[in-house]
Amino acid sequence: MRDQASGPRVLLKRLRELMQEPLEPQERLDRIVRDIASNMVAEVCSLYVLRADSVLELYATEGLNPNAVHLAQLRLGQGLVGTIAASARPLNLSNAQEHPAFAYLPETGEEIYNSFLGVPVLRAGRTLGVLVVQNKTMRHYRDDEVEALETTAMVIAEMIATGDLARLTRPGLELDLRRPVSFTGLSFNDGVGLGHVVLHEPRIVVTNLFNEDSEEEVRRLETSLGSLRLSIDDMLERRDVAFEGEHRQVLEAYRMFANDRGWVRRLEEAIRNGLTAEAAVEKVQSDMRARMLHMTDPYLRERMSDFDDLANRLLRQLMGRGPEDVAASLPKDAIIVARSMGAAELLDYPRDKMRGLVLEDGAATSHVVIVARAMGIPVAGQMKGAVSMAENGDAIIVDGEEGVIHLRPQPDLEAAYAEKVRFRARRQEVYRELRKKPSTTRDGVQVDLLMNAGLAVDLPQLAEAGAAGIGLFRTELQFMVASTFPRAEAQEKLYRDVLEAARGKPVTFRTIDIGGDKVLPYFKGAIQEENPALGWRAIRLTLDRPGLLRTQIRALLKASGGRELKLMLPMVTELGEIAQAREIIDREVRHLSRFAHHLPTSLKLGAMLEVPSLLFQLDELMKAVDFVSVGSNDLFQFVMAVDRGNTQLANRFDTLSAPFLRVLKQIADAGIRNHTPVTLCGELAGKPISAMALIGLGFRSISMSPASIGPVKAMLTELPLDELEAFFNDNLMAPAQGLPMRALLQAFADDRSIPL
Residue limits of the GAF domain (predicted)? Predict the structure, then answer.
């Protein structure tokens, strides 16, 4: 009895020889289909390639009319071939003409063939074409023959992906892999970026497809699987991930996949059919992704992302490659495309090479977006499917204003966006001209425009943006990008550098705000929480772990010697927390005084107003502190009962709704009443329309990303504040005609030619 695996191995050996021969693309395809037909004892073998216009074109055939090559066509979903392409599933039929999807193409002469086996040509789960064998006799093709044809299709997919077949495409037509595609999602940060794709979790391109020794490849697979399983077990056993909730669930899913015998068996079968271990992982991964992409169950689709990540980890184990190799070879105009990523991961990429960020998930207030905004790069989010459609090196445009991306754009679209970039550059020149002008309304009222920062990389933007100071320095970012707790000396150096870069302008340092969704992987004391945003975080955590706070306070006091120090406490819920923090600060001041350290000339303590409980003790709060900062991101989240990371609710409620504006008005009025300075430092401050609303409500100090200062100042200098205050007197409690406040504010600006 013939060894069933010998057929696929012989075929793969022949394919390897063909791929090494110096042949023209059409000749290579013709030889491939001829060898497949011979190996599988088939009278017909045909290759159809998917074009950008969703048409499958016959590219090569053995057995059908050769004159039909590049002329015979089927639409996606039409006939058996179109059905395979649309479903990404093979079809194995003993009598093809009885299948309801059968469509006869008279130019091919295929009407005399009964049995039919067709498999999709897949790459990264995407269908690039269909490979078919046919026989006159009615027969059902064996499983090993299906496997052989699928493996061959994988080789052809690489030919398509490398552009080998582009020369065979008729003028005016393109293959599907290169077709332009656009995605519409959400704008997370303004700006326009033109560049080339860098996949954050890149698919590893397997170039060595054929093995010389199947048993050696199986041993390599077993060794890499063992290492992968050990690394997952180690991550799960470490105490520092025990509290991470969803992260732990993902690792549990990884462990389940890594120990799944069905997955391992399919990998071993692919190796014994002639593939290397890497190519086997790529083939099984692509097959599974193609099947899962057509499932509607969101849970199963999410598990596919877990499986993808696991398979990529295994590929890296096999090929001895790490993610750091990718960052080292960035193009000069990199646009990072990711399903999701952390703030620290973004900072691994060189800022001078980044032109934009595309996220499949995320929210405007997630920390990676906040960091990207501080770096001044455009961000578009909720771009579902962008990762699987993109290839490293693809041309891409990120429109952070409209929340749109264009992958492999047409030349005329690229030219239009290049002009848009030039226009924005001219507008930036206008903003730069505004830097030295007073930050006052048209009727002469001063409004301080401050910037948010968190890392040394942000500091040059203080002068470039013309900010009046730093209204929020997020000290936790230094902790988030480090692999261990930053030593007191490192903290002190950063704080001193910040104050020196500010050149006498005010800087407000927020004490460390970790916990919730700001997880430090090296923090051993954290706990698992069902509602981390409402849990053990910020001031609650640091008061319970005073050593953390004491070390930071001491570093801040030493760095501020001879200068004013402004300290702000995050997530304050009750006034007792301010008193406890003040006690710790006073203790550190006494300690440093005892050892004759150079101390700040003055120390001002403030609180962030993010928790609604403070709204019911506003006057007491204003008397208990030297200043107040409104954290509008969290305050809006808690007032409206909206998880700010929940993409289903991202646009459901408006931050400029009348109820929330009334809350902000109460805060501004309390500050004026008690002569306590009030700043707002959330995302509301960074958009001209919402900044206009804040100024109309009584805020005279707002803090935003550096890139937002120019547009907000351009609005401010054209703003007649007396008219805006009258507008709020008329509309805040009872909006005119029942219209949304955003629409009324837009109309107010339009009527007075205020640039928004």
Answer: 24-170
